[in-house]
Amino acid sequence: MAHARAPIAYDFKYRFDNRMIVVEPKNVLFSIVCPTFNRSKLLGRAIDSVLRQQLGDFELIIVNDGSTDDTRDLVSRYNDKRIVYIEHEKNKGTMAACNTGFDKAKGTYIAKLDDDDELSNHALQVAFDAFNELPNDRIKVLFFNCIDVETGLISGKSLPEEATIRYEDLLCQKLMGDYWVVVERSILSGGETLDERSWDDFGSLWLRLLRNFDGYYVPKICLLCYREHGLPRRSNSDTNSRNLQAHEYTAKVLLEEFGVDMKSYCPKVYSKQIAALAFYRLLNKNSRKARSDLLLSLKNHFTVFALVLLLLSFTGNEKSALFIYERVLRNSVRIFF
Fold it and tell me: Which CATH number fits domain 12-225: 3.10.20.30, 3.90.550.10, 3.40.50.970, 3.40.50.720?
């Protein structure tokens, strides 16, 4: 019961700007950070799911990342002091929006909520109970299941039962796919932030944290993920040049930071990640580097995927690789989370 804590009474301070009144709670149990960009038609569902929580001791930090739609007007219609609204003048990207939200968060625990998804009504209560029932004080990161609303399937590579998750477990993809992750905010206070040049730096962030602390997998569904909703998902717009370069950068940095450990603990995963880097380099028309990576990947561990990419690297036909990506591998070639 080392984490047990009674809900905190609200203590608010007011900040005025030229857009709207922002009410910021000084101390709360949970901080939910919701980055958003031109998703006003979807954002309301995410907001409503937080406001419906059985456990009401939270702040919802909405970071408007330079939207040009009516996101500001939508948020202003909510008369709830637990909503904190922050606005970027220009679009900076999802990682930057998350960094802004994390920097402003005051909760004991912190989690992210995408603007097109929603929390289950019991999510915060389940997370609070789980933190209170942990087997040891080293556990600071919790992983909960997500469900794909369209298919009804769990969207992560779930374990058969709850378990402690250590650095090498995550490194070797014992958990892989979509999870709702809740972190004790205190372990983020040492300057751990997301790389804003990255496509998605959360996988690397969890690995950095688990070098010093443990995680815990809780087999309960806390997040509902929506893939088909008539508007582009962030992952559906990733074949433009800027986003593909961000993918390549993410894969490269991951290997630079964790490649040595990955090769030691799980050489097959190491080979897979090298192939993923080569794949993005191929899409970015850097066939020479891609070919070198693929030869290294095949040397460490043979896969048909790497062999096919190697053959494509000699043809200079990036369109074939892009076809494979869009039709087959968009959701399966992932860098952890």
Answer: 3.90.550.10
User: So where are the chain's domains?
Assistant: 12-225, 238-329
The pTM of this model reads: 0.84
Distances, alpha carbon 102 to alpha carbons 124, 191, 239, 327, in Å? 17, 11, 28, 35
**75 is written with which tokens?**
């948020």
Helix, strand, coil tally for the chain in percent (to 5):
40, 20, 35
Of 250, 106, 107, 110, which Cα lies nearest the Cα of 181? Answer: 110
Express each pLDDT in 16-26 by its tens digit: 344 444 445 46
Q: What is the pLDDT of residues 73-100, one digit of tens each?
A: 999 999 999 999 999 999 999 999 999 9
Q: What is the pLDDT of residues 100-124, one digit of tens each?
A: 999 999 999 999 999 999 999 999 9
Q: Where are the beta strands (DSSP E) in the chain?
A: 12-16, 21-25, 28-36, 58-65, 83-88, 107-112, 118-119, 139-148, 163-165, 179-184, 214-225
Q: Residue 105: how many CB atoms within 10 A of its CB?
A: 21
Contact between residue 40 and residue 116 where contact means Cβ atoms under 8 Å apart: no
Residue 59 phi, psi dihedral angles, 5° rounding: -125, 140
First-residue to last-residue Cα distance in the chain = 30
Dump strand ranges (E) for 70-173: 83-88, 107-112, 118-119, 139-148, 163-165
> For 27-44, how does the pLDDT look when each residue is reduced to its tens digit (9 = 90+)?
899 999 999 999 999 999
Q: Is 195 left (phi over 0), alpha (psi -120 to 50) or beta?
A: beta
Residue spans of beta strands (DSSP E) within 40-134: 58-65, 83-88, 107-112, 118-119
